[in-house]
Amino acid sequence: MLFHSYEFIFVFLPMTFFIYFYLNRRRLTNASKFFLVFSSLFFYSWWNISYLPIILLSIIFNYIIGKYLNIDNGTDYNKFSKKSLLTFGIVSNIALLGYFKYTDFMIWNINLLFNANIHTLNLALPLAISFFTFQQISYLVDSYTQKAKEYDFLNYTLFVTFFPQLISGPIVHHKEMMPQFTRTRNKVQNYNNIAAGLFIFSIGLFKKVVIADTFAVWAIQGFDVATTLNLFEAWTTSLSYSLQLYFDFSGYTDMAIGLALLFNIKLPINFNSPYKATNIQDFWRRWHITLSRFLKDYIYIPLGGNRKDEFRTYSNLITTFMIGAIWHGAGWTFMFWGFLHGISIIIYRLWSKLGLKLWSWLAWLITFNFINVAWIFFRAKEWDSAIKVLSSMFNLDNIVISKQFSNFFNYINPLNEYYKFNGSEFQSFVDFYTLEMLVFGFIIITLFKNSNELKLEFNSFNRVHLNLYIFSIFLFGYALIVMSFQTGSEFLYFNF
Hints:
68% of the residues lie in helices and 0% in strands. By secondary structure, it is mainly α. It has 2 domains: 6-188, no CATH class; 194-495, no CATH class. It starts with 5 loop residues before the first helix and ends in a 13-residue tail after the last helix.
């Protein structure tokens, strides 16, 4: 069941919303929480019910470990110290994630290195395992440091399974979300939150089904279908994927935040116009913010952060980015993508120490193009696919103009009498509509306000006399979204 499917929007969401608040209105607080947990697990099981035992066992295991870690004076349970118990909990979570996500990758590498013939297990990756594993690891660490306490199994299960953020985040801390469920005013319908939630949800819905899925067509064509690419097709392929990923994941995040607001729960911001960044460090402060926070708090700082010498600091940075890369997927292309970003952060720090500065437009251009090139390795299923796109992007001997474009250029060419563009008859997936959409995408990511800023403006409107113009645009956009539903298109981060 996808956020942008008919069954979710018109059946699951209304039923969950009204029954949850009906139970709260009857002061059946535990029943309302149980119903929300049941609904979330039903939502999770919709894809494949075989995933359900895995997440339930993970929840039970981490709840038990966290319960003992929450004992103030430590525990002598089975003669284990709290630190040993924490280590056991973290290793067990990583082992579960590693078994499903990395076993076949390890077998493939062993076969390659030792010319072996070990059969892969062809394990199906349980949905959202990367996200609920990291979320529960952060809970265990917070329990160990006494930053989070939870003695109620129902509350803990709700913390892990709350359906708006279960599948692809944001990755939340226990202290960020669970206290909100205990507030009395959050147990009744808040029409301001409902209006804001639907507004943000619709923005995310528009990003996904109208923009991201449009760019997906050209990204798939370039990466997976075409065997060769000319220069224009290669750049269209890479830029289309960069924009697809941006609108797809930021769209999901908007939808998750909007859905949570319907239940009076405020999730943390996960995107803040990352393609407006003028350096790579700023990009990682804006892109997938909750993951960056996790990697910083639970990997980079425990490794020593920048408290040691420069070599140790740079080693910690590379290690953190490599872990973040392998979290996204089991493959050497992912690892190389993480390595590139780690190196770029080091180069930026060295550059900053020299006190050198660039014009803002040039800094943005360099940053975005680096990100765009690095995404090629993130997207490519294998090295050959990445090299196909990358080599064509910088091959000046591979400039081919289709007949459609040559006719247009000749029409607007003031020197038409003296020089004409010669176009080829080949069929290209790049046309005028492609270029229009690329321009449209860049205008949105660079000039428009993001959903966080729009939400603040939306909240500033008078709740009774909402600006008719904004409301009309909202209804038109929503109608367009409904007409453009592509129910078979999953979110990209479901694969991670």
